[in-house]
Fold:
Amino acid sequence: MSKVLLLGMAPLPFEKERKIYGTGIRTWQFAKPLLEDGHKVCIVAYKIPSTYENNNKIEVSYPIDLEQHKVELEKYSFYIIRLKQKEFEDNLILNDIHDKFSPDCIVSATFYPSFIATKIKSEVPFWADLFGHVMAEAQAKAVSINDDEMLFHYWNQEVRIIDKADIFSCVSKRQENATIGELGLLGRLNKYTYRYDFTRLIPCAAPEEDFYHNKKVIRGIDVEEDDFVILYSGGYNTWVDVDTLFNALTMLMSENTKIKFISTGGEIKGIDEKTYPRFLKMIENSRFKDRFIMKGWIPAEDVRNYYFEANLGINVDKNLYEVYFGSKNRILEWMRAGLLVLSSKVCELSYLLDEKKLGFTYKAEDTLSLKNKITEIISNPDLAKERVKNAKKYVSKNLTYYRTVEPLREWVKNPKKSPDRGKERALDRRREEAFQNLERIVKSQQEMIKIRNERIEELEGLFHKKIIYRIFNYIKLIKKRIF
Structure:
C-alpha cells in the first residue's frame, strides 16, 4: 500500500456544508477509492471562502500535528488539513506537511491544487489532475470581466503544471488531446517520453451508494403535486446560458400553467458574481415570476431530495470552449438519482446522453430548440421513463467514483516518474536560448529606436531653424518694400 499526499479543495461532500462545489466533489472522487483500496491518505485542501458557514472547528494551528487532523469516517481513517488561501500557498507549510507525512507519491485533484503541488520540494512521483481546460475557462472569465490581462495568471500556472507533473488526468478525451498539445509545446514530447502515455481519462462520476428521498421539499409546499417541475441545481458560472433558459421557460409558461422552475444554488463568490443576480433581475421583471422558485444555496444534504420531486433536470451551457473540453457533475448526480436530464449539446457527456439514449439534448443557445425539446419530453412520458432507467443503470455500472478512478488506483499501487523527469530537455535549453536571444534583439531594437528618435529630433530641429530663417528674411524683405 502507498502513502498518498492528496491536494484538493474543500468542503468535501461528506461535510454536509451549504455549498459543495465540483472541485470538492472531484477531490472526494479521488480520495474515497484510494481509501477503499487501503492506501494511507493525507488530504491537504484549500478551504473555499464562504463555504464553511456551520463548521467552525477547522482552524489550523502551527506547527501542524498530523494526528490532530485524523478523521474516522465510517470504515475510513485518513488525515485532512483544510487551509485558507494564504496557508495553502505557503511553501513552508506545504513542505512541513510533506516531510512529516513522507508520501510515496503526490496526487492533486483539480487545477489550482495541481499548481500548488508544483511548489512542494519533493522527489516522489506527481500526478496532476487538470479537471477541464483552464485556458478556455480563462477566456470565459476574461469575457465576463472584459479584461484579457488575467489570461497570463492562468497561463503561468498551467505552464508550471505541464512542465512539472509526471502524469495527468483529464475529464474528457477532448481535454486529453488539448493537454497532449500543451505537452508538445513545452517540449515534454521528447526522446525520453517516446511511447510514454502522459494522460489518463477520469470523467466526472457519481457516488456508488443509492440516493434516497427522506423528506418532502417542494411538492405541496412550493408547487402543486401535478406540476411539471424543471430543476436547476448548482452554481451559476460564466458559461450558464440564463438568457436562453429564461426565454424558453417564459414561452412555455405562457402555454402551460403547470410548468414551474426551481433552482438550488446561486452565484459563485470570487468566480462569477454577475450571472445569477442578472438572472434574478430578469425573473423579477417577468409576469411569471411567481413560477420561478429560487431557493439559493441550501444544505448539500437537502439538495438530493429535490432530484426526486422534480420531473426534469436542466443543464444550460453556452457553446464555449470551456464547456466543450469539460464535463458536469450535476448531470451525473441527476442520472444516479433517477431524474431525467436535458442538456445543451456541447460537452462530451452531453453527446453520451444521445449516443446511449440516457437523456435528451437541445441545440445550445437556441431558445426554440430548448422550448420544443421540453414540450416533446412532456408529451412522451413513456420515452422519458425509458431514458431515466437507462441512465441510472449506465451510471451505476460505468460512472461511479471507484470505476472512473481505476487509472489512478493502478498508478498509485506503483507510482512512477515520467521518463524525462530530471533529464535535460533540449527544448527547455533552446527556449532559454531563444528568450536570451529575444532579450538581445529587443535591446538592440530599443537602441536603434533611440538612435532613430534622436536623429529625427535633430532633423526636425534643423528643419524648424531653416523655416524660421526663411520667414525672418521674408518679413525683412516685405518691410523694405513697404517703407
